[in-house]
């Protein structure tokens, strides 16, 4: 069953591309027609590409890895934050920090700084600072929270990147390409899809268009997470039985002495001979 259908995409305006004069020829395979100077995206291809991307994302999440969503444009920020946080995935909706992927350890240090400030507040150390120091620390904490709060639990590089508007997020795409991290993206008719692993041809300027595709994608991610949880529960239930079986002592037969083995061989030879003599005696 498809994650979305033609009518859903049509109602959300996913098929509206950019002006004909702004198009990228590499998007030609995904363009259905041109109307009033605007390119119209082939929604049948969009449906197929959404399903393909959703299936791949589901497997990534099922394997225990994470997907980082990037959308800093005004139309996408709120909808991405709402839908992605619901499936417990990291996202960037403010500003893409340079080196977010290629210099990941430095980003992690900034995230740990937030945790340190929170620790100061919890253990009372914060109260010992002067008024000016408190103000500086609170401002720093607010800035870090705004830019990095949504990736606080991202302890290692993501397994994939999901991008809305690859022109605006070109730095994120470049970093992912450099590290061979697969990129999933909404790609409009004015964009170059060459460096995108999973192209979803769609209108990346309308909030409704972004939302309908994110619904399909996040539903697949939720399924992957649920299946992983079930597998873990099953493994946890089977673990005690396996340990019990491995701990159970095995009964070993005592080795036979050479004399006992010789006696058994003699008996085995004697029995057929005795059976042959018995009929002769009766006759």
What does this structure look like?
It is a single chain. The chain has 283 residues and is an alpha/beta fold. The protein has a domain at 6-101 and 157-233: Glucose-6-phosphate isomerase like protein, domain 1 (Rossmann fold), CATH 3.40.50. It is 54% helix and 12% strand. It has eight helices and eight strands, in the order H-E-E-E-H-E-H-E-H-H-E-H-E-E-H-H. The strands form two sheets. The protein has a five-stranded parallel β-sheet, with helices on both faces. Helix 3 (74-86) links the parallel strand 4 (67-70) and strand 5 (91-92). Helix 2 packs parallel to helix 7 (207-247), helix 3 packs parallel to helix 7 (207-247) and helix 4 (104-123) packs across helix 5. The mean pLDDT is 85.
Chain-wise SSE layout:
Layout: H1 6-12, E1 16-19, E2 31-35, E3 38-41, H2 43-62, E4 67-70, H3 74-86, E5 91-92, H4 104-123, H5 131-148, E6 160-164, H6 170-178, E7 183-187, E8 198-201, H7 207-247, H8 258-282
Helix pairs in contact: 2-7, 3-7, 4-5
Structural class: alpha/beta
Strand content: 5-15%
Euclidean distance between termini CA atoms: 85 Å
Spatial arrangement of strands, main beta sheet: 5-4-6-7-8
The CATH superfamily of the domain at 6-101 and 157-233 appears as Glucose-6-phosphate isomerase like protein, domain 1
* Major sheet attributes: 5 strands, parallel
Question: Can you give the mean pLDDT?
Answer: 85
Q: Output the CATH class name of the domain at 6-101 and 157-233.
A: Alpha Beta
DSSP, total strands: 8
Radius of gyration: 33 Å
In the CATH classification, which architecture of the domain at 6-101 and 157-233 applies? 3-Layer(aba) Sandwich
Low-confidence stretches: none
């Amino acid at each position: 069953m498809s994650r979305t259908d033609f009518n859903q995409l049509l109602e959300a305006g996913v098929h509206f591309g950019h002006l004909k004069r702004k198009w990228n020829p590499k998007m030609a395979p995904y363009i259905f027609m041109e109307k009033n100077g605007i390119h119209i995206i082939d929604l049948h291809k969009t449906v197929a590409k959404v399903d393909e991307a959703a299936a791949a994302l589901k497997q990534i999440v099922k394997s225990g890895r994470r997907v980082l969503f990037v959308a800093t444009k005004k139309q996408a920020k709120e909808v991405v934050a709402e839908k992605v946080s619901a499936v417990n995935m990291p996202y960037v909706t403010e500003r893409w920090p340079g080196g977010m992927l290629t210099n990941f350890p430095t980003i992690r240090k900034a995230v740990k700084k937030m945790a340190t400030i929170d620790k100061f507040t919890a253990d009372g150390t914060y109260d010992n600072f002067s008024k000016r120091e408190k103000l500086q620390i609170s401002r720093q904490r607010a800035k870090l929270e705004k830019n990095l709060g949504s990736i606080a639990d991202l302890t290692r590089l993501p397994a994939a990147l999901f991008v809305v508007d690859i022109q605006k997020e070109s730095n994120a795409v470049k970093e992912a390409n450099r590290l061979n991290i697969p990129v999933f993206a909404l790609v409009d008719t004015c964009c170059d899809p060459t460096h995108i692993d999973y192209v979803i041809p769609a209108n990346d300027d309308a909030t409704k268009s972004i939302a309908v595709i994110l619904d399909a994608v996040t539903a697949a991610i939720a399924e992957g997470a649920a299946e992983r949880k079930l597998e873990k529960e099953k493994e946890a239930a089977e673990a005690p039985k396996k340990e019990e079986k491995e701990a159970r002592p095995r009964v070993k037969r005592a080795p036979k002495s050479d004399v006992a083995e010789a006696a058994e061989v003699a008996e085995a030879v004697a029995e057929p001979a005795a059976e042959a003599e018995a009929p002769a005696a009766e006759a």
